[in-house]
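TASK: fixed-backbone design
INPUT:
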């Protein structure tokens, strides 16, 4: 790896952050680069998991897992929260579920390993910003990943809610802004399009 790698952030409330990162991965693979996609906050339930591992021997995809859906108290209006009570674990700010903390800690350790060793040209930490938002990972941990990355590694961090510190530190930031979405009409996630 002779080229300098940069830090990219895809954030915002609009659809397309993970999709953009996967597109970048495909482009990098087409150029003969080695790519690692490490997905935080996701289980292997998304359609891309059926095809990505078969695309190239230069691509590795791992999920850090999602044992259950979580919601931080105070992060949404009470009437909206009522709809989720039977489908999610609601936790007080600063006290995320231990099960999630353990899983994400394993993911951070894996991220540190692959970012530092330079085996991959592109490392995508998908939904790491969401893990930051929920307090499952700290800004200091993410900052350390950025600081310790090998010179040639392109590091991509995705997920809504990127904190100002990350936006300031990144070399490229793209914000996906929702203008209109069919979810507001009650349309559920569609397989192959939304998940």
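OUTPUT:
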């Amino acid at each position: 790896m002779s080229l300098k790698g940069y830090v990219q952030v895809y954030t915002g409330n609009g659809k397309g952050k993970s999709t953009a990162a996967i597109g970048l991965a495909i482009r990098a693979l087409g150029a003969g680069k080695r790519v690692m996609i490490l997905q935080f906050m996701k289980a292997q339930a998304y359609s891309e998991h059926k095809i990505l591992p078969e695309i190239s021997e230069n691509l590795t995809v791992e999920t850090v897992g999602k044992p259950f859906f979580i919601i931080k108290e105070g992060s949404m209006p009470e009437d909206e929260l009522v709809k989720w009570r039977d489908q999610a674990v609601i936790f007080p700010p600063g006290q995320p579920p231990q099960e999630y903390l353990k899983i994400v800690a394993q993911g951070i350790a894996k991220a540190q390993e692959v970012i530092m060793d330079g085996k991959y040209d592109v490392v995508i930490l998908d939904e790491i910003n969401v893990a930051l938002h929920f307090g499952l990972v700290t800004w200091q941990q993410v900052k350390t990943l950025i600081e310790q990355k090998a010179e040639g590694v392109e590091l991509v961090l995705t997920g809504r809610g990127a904190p100002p510190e990350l936006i300031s530190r990144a070399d490229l930031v793209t914000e996906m802004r929702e203008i209109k979405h069919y979810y507001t009409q009650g349309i559920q996630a569609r397989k192959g399009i939304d998940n």
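COMMENT: The beta strands are 7-11, 35-40, 59-65, 69-72, 88-91, 122-126, 154-158, 172-175.
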